[in-house]
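Researcher: Next entry in the queue.
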Amino acid sequence: MTLDKIYHAAFVLKDVARKTDMIAAPELCNCGNLWLKTENLQVTGSFKLRGAYYKISQLTEEEKRRGVIACSAGNHAQGVALAAQKKGIPALICIPDSAPISKIEATRRFGATVELVPGTYDDAYAHALQLKEERALTFIHPFDDEDVIAGQGTIGLEILDQMPDVEAVIVPIGGGGLISGLAFAIKSLRPQCKVYGVQAANAPSMMKSIQKGKSITLDTVATFADGIAVKHPGDTTFDLVRRYVDGIVSVSEDEIASAILALMERQKLVAEGAGAVSVAAALFDKIDLENKKTVCLLSGGNIDVNILSRVITRGLVNSGRNASLTIALVDKPGQLEGVSHIVSAHGGNVVSVQYDRSDPNMAINTCYLKLALETRDHAQIEEIATALGKAGFTIV
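Model: Structure for this entry, 396 residues:
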């Protein structure tokens, strides 16, 4: 890897990839001095176009004639498909069958042939390698390739151009292609800037590999952040991460969901799970960012609307905006009115009521009242519960 290669990639990409905006987000976390690099607004909705297009641009005429093959959870697939379409090259993409439908259909719209593979990214990878040999295709690796890494590294050049005095950059990690190129570029030009990686807690392959000092393969990965659900990091990327990245942290599924919700509400930006892990790390104080001018990289925004609906619901629950209360009542007139008055007096909004007198463990003259509430935060939920208790109602 060289800085010249990354600069060359930037030249090749200047008419293909957007120079995405850097947006201030001072209210998003406690550190206050936070900015977002919006690769979720990139062409195809993800940074992956950069590496895929640069790699394909460097193929020989013979390799282009035979066609290309790739494996992906969705974003790399779209990048390869669009790049191949622009170059007039046939493309076959192997995608895990668990990938969001929106990503699969977007890949098809760019003209690629899609083959769904049961399992995870790693299963799609193994199948793609088999087809590569059988059909003499050129394999476009999603992360463990120097041309791909150089393409992703152009984001580092853009960050330094947009914010020359940046002090910390937080980057999602799956296989490591993005953070490898970005960290190499930034550390080569501004070595005092810290570069941190973030993984899903249920898919920490790079973090575990760095801890053990060698690339490892996880038995399983289980995260809705499908773009970073990788069992085994790249060998080239592992070496670059070990040399140029200052630390790696992990975030839970609920923390990722909360970050997606915060981005939508406060910044009007849609990020997929993998794209939001950098913000989750800042939001939940996984990294010491106090008094540091920090950039969080939103790596992608291709989230399936069905997943988004679930994520919003989970985020509302985690932030105390939705709550469920089950109250044991003596079954007599006026009880619901009393409960409603207390909830209303403390600013809560009842959105559903369920009345249950069938539980065999309750007394004959009692019932359960199950309420779904809209609330401001956890403190308000506690206020309502305390007030109900003082009024003689039993919270189950």
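Model: The chain has a mean pLDDT of 93.
Researcher: Noted, moving on.
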